[in-house]
């Protein structure tokens, strides 16, 4: 190391307050007092570094002198590209200087070669006026996007370096003189230090105060002219100027990770005035182990006129130089090559320290530096601050580094099953290219496992040439092996899945049109549970010769006959509970020759519906008596030998218009407005014959067969609890029908009715609110929400996913072609999407659908991560913290409502919050919120003993 003081560098024996080396290393600038004004001088670096150059009279020493400031210059700083020099002084001004062609104006030559003329010409291109007091410090941001200035007016002004003299923001919050400012090298923060005994960290995204640190500065006094703090080149450490520890002055080390203040540089006898990190991250081999070390280097100057050099890899200073000047050290600057340090003093002199690579180490190359930045922040050093100002692209939380940088995928409603060899099949025999489309919001259940028929099957071809296989036999026994064995065979993609997902039940519907043989729609397999599928029943072999029926798209039909078919499909699962493993539901109804229009229509011919081995047969107008024509209702059982045995028979004095079968009961509705509830094994009545104001058009059982419901022509809705022989709900659909009629009825196990109208709208009735809840309609927000969260094949599993199933019957089209771009550009989209999702969540709460509630909370997190605001995200997360958050107060107890507030439909709010946070993790701009709320969540889990969950908090 060499130390020398070029005595020819001076300001006419006046104080030099600032010094800065040009990025090229060829020149340096000083700022301070002149004879009667503030002075900025640009010096040649060559005479400082070389004795030969210093002795050579032809080598200029002063390159340019500018005396434009009206008062003392307190700071000079070169821009990162070296094209501009900024100076700030006691005249409240910041001046921006730029080199011009010879003779175009600028400063005057005071010393050195050139016969009293400036060798270089630097012109003030902009004067920045905004401060109300002396400007004490300046700092250019990375990439020279902004420049920050601080003043005795207690503010920091951020100026737009692309559009001088535009002010980007005025940072207010300090209550004392602001004496130092510095930028985070990765462009995330700007830090300031003030006489108010605080250090503040400001976010560059919205210029808000992110962190205020006061503890290390509580004993500090305003004894220094400046407080030049500095940020390490790796961004991990912020070192303040003056701090106190145990009554002694220190330079406080503030770690970026948690903003901890448990380390400092000690040894100076008086207040530290300035610190300056080496511009590069350094490396060298450790003396003993020969292991490669990476570290940062820091110079510290103080009022005690001493200078210390520190390496973060060492516990002690590398060197300490006492009494370097006769006055306080006021500024420090490292050269671009990293081996020269210039420092200046209030006594009007400067000093130069030259180091070697053996002493300091070797600077990391730009490539290695970028690799380090990529590992630490997920971004290289060449940061686009213009874009980063809008999006917080710098990764600080390590959780964000493991998130894929590709487009985040929305959550899926149905758990995904692994595909065979990464392939998907368009039909039963033809493989296509590996699936490359991203996951969609709602995955169709029909794209999951489907049973493979054992006996003869029918093959048809669709309009696009694809083959479609229609099995001809109905599986009734759960002993056919795992469902996953044919998980990729998308047989009958347009088939509908209903009923329970349990391992004990599934539903089958046999549809038949007038004058046509029936086509069998394959039943769903137990995909959700992985339970085995069923064997085929040889009772139906006689149907193997039936001609194929053309596949139909799954839309809400306008044809009333098709609407009635869909109603029968949906009402089928309401007849299922969880009986023995061989119990299944099937119905077979010959449709009427005339199309219904919301009116009760007599069932034509023979019809039956079955549950397990018992089925109920309807034969209208088959018994002629002198009193009138009777209709027969017969209960039969099918034995293992496929022999039908009659269990009971009864007659009804009026034609039957609809009926439904459950595990224990059957409900039979007649044209004369009467309703009969009978036991399916004995035929004995459960209720007396009931009569309503009009005949029933739809009837259904809940999936547990405990509840039965009907809808009449006039829109009256009744739901009864059959075991209790009591009405559960009595209301009217008339207020929502508006000229339409009910086409689908479903009753949930909790007595919640779902109806679909002929106009496509759907509703559910809430007894607590005594009102109909809108499920689907032509409302633009609902249309936008559903179109954005569905696939080509709808999710239709009425027991597990009732909301999605009912909404899948909407017949509302999407936007027209000329407005399709609106789906991707309109500003209303975010508000509409979030409003729709939040309404879905509230519906799920009211209808008690936990699987869908979890999905829509996940979808809410996905939307908020992509397009949400910080205010909305905090609102959602605070709501999920709920009473548990409020109970951080030890005076509160988790009892009563507070305890209930910890879960929704049996799902822990903490679990829902984890899901939302996992989506926020896909966008680095939310990492601060993510870290903040993750810490709160961890605290609550630790306090609650882990919440009963053994798996990690976040996955």
Automatic annotation (TrEMBL):
Q: Where is the CAF1B/HIR1 beta-propeller domain?
A: 1-360
Domain of life from the UniProt record:
Eukaryota
PROSITE patterns, per this entry?
A: WD_REPEATS_2, WD_REPEATS_REGION
Which CDD domains does this UniProt record tie to the protein?
WD40
Q: Where are the WD repeats?
A: 66-98, 128-160, 171-212
Keyword list, A-Z? Chromatin regulator, Nucleus, Repeat, Repressor, Transcription, Transcription regulation, WD repeat
Tagged with keyword Chaperone:
no
List residues traversing the bilayer. none
Q: Where does this chain mainly localize? A: nucleus
Which Pfam families does the protein's record reference?
Beta-prop_CAF1B_HIR1, Hira, HIRA_B
- Mind telling me what this protein is named? Protein HIRA
* Annotated source species: Anopheles merus
């Amino acid at each position: 190391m060499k130390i020398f003081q070029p005595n020819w560098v001076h300001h006419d024996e006046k104080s030099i307050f600032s010094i800065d080396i040009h990025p090229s290393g060829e020149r340096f600038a000083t700022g301070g007092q002149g004879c009667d004004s503030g002075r900025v001088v640009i010096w040649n670096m060559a005479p400082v570094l070389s004795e030969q150059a210093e002795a050579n009279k032809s080598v200029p020493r002063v390159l340019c002198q500018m005396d434009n400031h009206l008062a003392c210059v307190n700071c000079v700083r070169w821009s990162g590209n070296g094209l501009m020099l900024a100076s700030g002084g006691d005249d409240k001004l910041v001046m921006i200087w730029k080199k011009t062609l010879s003779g175009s104006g600028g400063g005057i030559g005071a010393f050195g070669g050139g016969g009293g003329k400036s060798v270089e010409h630097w012109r003030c291109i902009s004067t920045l006026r905004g401060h109300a007091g002396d400007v004490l410090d300046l700092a250019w941001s990375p990439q020279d996007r902004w420049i920050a200035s601080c003043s005795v007016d207690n503010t920091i002004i951020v100026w737009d370096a692309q559009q001088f003299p535009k002010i980007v923001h005025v940072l207010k919050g300090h209550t004392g003189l602001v004496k130092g400012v510095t930028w985070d090298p990765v462009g995330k923060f700007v830090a300031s230090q003030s006489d108010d005994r605080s250090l503040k960290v400001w976010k560059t995204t919205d210029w808000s105060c992110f962190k205020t640190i006061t503890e290390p500065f509580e004993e500090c006094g305003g004894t220094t002219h400046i407080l030049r703090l500095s940020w390490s080149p790796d961004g991990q450490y912020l070192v303040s100027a003056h701090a106190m520890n145990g009554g002694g002055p220190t330079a406080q080390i503030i770690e970026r990770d948690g903003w901890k203040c448990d380390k400092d540089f000690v040894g100076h006898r008086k207040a530290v005035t300035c610190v300056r990190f080496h511009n590069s991250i350094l490396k060298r081999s450790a003396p003993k182990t020969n292991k490669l070390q990476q570290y940062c280097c820091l110079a510290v100057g103080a009022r005690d006129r001493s200078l210390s050099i520190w390496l973060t890899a060492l516990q002690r200073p590398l060197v300490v130089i006492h009494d370097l000047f006769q006055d306080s050290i006021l500024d420090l600057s490292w050269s671009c090559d990293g081996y020269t340090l210039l420092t200046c003093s209030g006594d009007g002199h400067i000093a130069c320290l030259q180091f070697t690579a053996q002493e300091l180490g070797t600077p990391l190359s730009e490539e290695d530096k970028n690799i380090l930045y990529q590992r630490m922040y997920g971004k290289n050093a060449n940061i686009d601050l213009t874009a980063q100002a809008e999006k917080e692209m710098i990764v600080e939380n390590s959780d964000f580094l493991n998130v894929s940088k590709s487009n985040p995928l929305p959550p899926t409603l149905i758990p995904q099953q692994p595909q065979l060899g990464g392939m998907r099949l368009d039909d039963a025999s033809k493989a296509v290219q590996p699936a490359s489309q991203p996951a969609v919001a709602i995955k169709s259940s029909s794209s999951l496992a489907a049973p493979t028929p054992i006996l003869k099957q029918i093959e048809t071809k669709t309009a696009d040439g694809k083959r479609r296989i229609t099995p001809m036999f109905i599986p009734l026994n759960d002993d056919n092996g795992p469902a996953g064995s044919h998980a990729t065979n998308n047989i009958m993609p347009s088939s509908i899945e209903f009923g329970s997902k349990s391992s004990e039940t599934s539903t089958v519907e046999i549809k038949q049109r007038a004058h046509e043989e029936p086509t069998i729609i394959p039943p769903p397999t137990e995909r959700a549970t992985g339970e085995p599928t069923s064997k085929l029943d040889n009772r139906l072999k006689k149907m193997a010769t039936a001609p194929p029926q053309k596949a139909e798209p799954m839309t809400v039909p306008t044809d009333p006959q098709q609407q009635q078919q869909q109603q029968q499909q949906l009402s089928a699962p309401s007849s299922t509970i969880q009986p023995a493993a061989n119990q299944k539901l099937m119905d077979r109804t010959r449709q009427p020759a005339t199309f219904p229009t919301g009116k009760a229509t007599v069932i034509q011919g023979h019809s039956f519906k079955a549950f397990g081995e018992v089925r109920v047969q309807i034969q209208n107008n088959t018994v002629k008596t002198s009193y009138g024509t009777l209709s027969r209702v017969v209960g039969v059982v099918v034995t293992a030998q496929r022999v039908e045995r009659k269990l009971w028979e009864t007659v009804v004095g009026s034609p039957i218009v609809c009926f439904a079968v459950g595990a224990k009961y059957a409900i039979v509705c007649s044209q004369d407005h009467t309703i009969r509830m009978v036991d399916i094994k004995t035929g004995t009545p459960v209720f007396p014959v009931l009569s309503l104001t009009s005949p029933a058009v739809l009837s259904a059982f809940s999936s547990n067969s405990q509840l039965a419901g009907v809808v009449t022509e006039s829109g009256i809705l009744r739901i009864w609890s059959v075991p209790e022989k009591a009405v559960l709900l009595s209301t009217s659909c008339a207020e929502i029908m508006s000229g339409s009629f009910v086409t689908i009825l479903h009753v949930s196990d909790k007595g919640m009715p779902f109806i679909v109208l002929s106009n496509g709208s759907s509703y559910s009735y809430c007894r607590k609110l005594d009102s109909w809840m809108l499920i689907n309609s032509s409302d633009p927000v609902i249309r936008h929400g559903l179109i954005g969260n569905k696939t080509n094949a709808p999710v239709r599993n009425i027991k597990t996913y009732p909301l999605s199933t009912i909404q899948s019957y909407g017949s509302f089209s999407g936007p027209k072609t000329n407005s399709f771009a609106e789906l991707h550009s309109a500003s209303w989209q975010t508000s509409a999407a979030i409003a729709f999702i939040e309404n879905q969540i509230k519906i799920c709460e009211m209808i008690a659908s936990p699987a869908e509630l979890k999905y829509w909370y996940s979808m809410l997190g996905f939307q908020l991560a992509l397009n949400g605001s910080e205010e909305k995200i905090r609102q959602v997360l605070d709501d999920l913290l709920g009473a548990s958050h409020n109970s951080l107060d030890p005076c509160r107890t988790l009892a009563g409502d507070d305890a209930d507030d910890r879960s929704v439909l049996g799902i822990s709010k903490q679990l829902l919050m984890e899901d939302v946070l996992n989506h926020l993790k896909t966008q680095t701009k939310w990492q601060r919120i993510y870290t903040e709320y993750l810490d709160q969540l961890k605290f609550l889990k630790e306090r609650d003993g882990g919440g009963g969950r053994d798996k990690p908090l976040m996955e």
